[in-house]
Amino acid sequence: MKLELGKIEIRDIQFADRTCIEDHVLYVDKEEVEKLVLSDDKLLECHLDIARPGDATRITPVKDVIEPRVKVSGGGEIFPGVIGKVSPTVGEGRTHALDGCCVVTVGRIVGFQEGVIDMSGPAADYCPFSKTVNLCVVIEPKEGLETHVYERAGRLAGLKVAAYLGEAGKAVEPDTLEVYETKPVFQQAAEYPDLPKVGYVHMLQSQGLLHDTYYYGVDAKQFVPTFMYPTEIMDGAIVSGNCVAPCDKVTTYHHLHNPVIDECYKRHGKEINFMGVILTNENVFLADKERHSDMVAKLAEWMELDGVLITEEGYGNPDTDLMMNCRKVERKGTKVVLITDEFPGKDGKSQSLADTCDEATALASCGQGNMTLQFPAMEKVIGMQDYIESQIGGWAGCINEDGSFEAEIQIIIASTIANGFNTLAARGY
Amino acid sequence: MVKGIEKYGIPVVHMATVVPISRTIGANRIIPGVGIPYPLGDPTQGETDSKKIRKRMVRRALKALQVPVQDQTVFEKDI
Lengths: 429, 79
Known about the structure:
heterodimer, A: alpha/beta, 8 helices, 32% strand, B: 3 strands, 42% helix
């Protein structure tokens, strides 16, 4: 599969009479977007707001962050199986991305695991979305909705808006054009016979109970491990639906911008032969964990991989999936490097992963989420601060009357994201 | 908690879904749970059968407490 990804640089978002892109500004027809969101009868109200880097603005509780993209050619539609048609598959032809802007879905909490984005101040250093121009879609659900119904309505609202805004970029000439290609397995292996064959084991959050991810519209807990071309992921074949801890939530934006895939492509044909993605999940039954890690190892062997990188989403019991994958892949003779974040407790004294194994000898840490930070009061709050104390990272009494609060950095969206997108790291002394 | 209680000479059975974590934390007597959302029962089987599962598991745990063990032991079947 070969994908041309054209990036249209977006420097600002402004409300206007019609949705279009001119001179790097995304103009948004507010009424049309609100109408689109409210076409779902589960939602009662919707209002839009814009947050720019440097603003004294806090956005919370954040559910998902999405980059607008559009398929220009090659078949398929963006977010297949969820917003776009499920068939044909995506990942080929040309896609345009509105680079530098995001859709952020906001509203009262679904679970307790939705986060904070500060557009300035100390917390901004820990969040990638403090540096993007954000169109915030603030939703109000109907009274009495079941939690999972509200979650679905919020998830679809964000994706719909992102797909709608992406359309504005279809006919715009992109500022940059990058080409990514992964060939069918035998051809790919033959292309660079002297380079080590490297794969990426991509673990999707699939614990259920509002911790879900979707692959071509399939609830990730319902599939068995499979192979993916990396370019499918760039076209939105995986979307986030989870309320996992904000710090290591893989938002839909991060699926589109998977740093492991980006880095592997940069080295493809030079240092490594990037063979593609083995997609797996993190289920709540031991039999699933055992069966799916066996299948991951089988796929790695079948692809004759020399090495794999493994990332997980979330922490706690998914650490077991991470270690099972590591142990079983290593035992098939493939080298493994793990990428994850850590939770050693506020005092730093606890074991920072819930599980470990002898084969886990190489690990890149994306930082730890238990460190506490002072969040100053902001001039403007998009959404509401009513839930700070119960959002993960906060605690009873952590918020002050003026709106400032103290919390662990795990309350910040993507602060320690366990695929390495952010800049936190651990250093050995 | 398992290790803390055993330090005082009181045997503990750890009933949890993810056996590798039970091993990692050093539990000596382990009974695998049904699933993380419902370790001691199974609501998909209905309340009556779910209670039966629970009763069997608790009985197995009470027996496991009385079994001398040398190494970390997983009690997968009724004793």
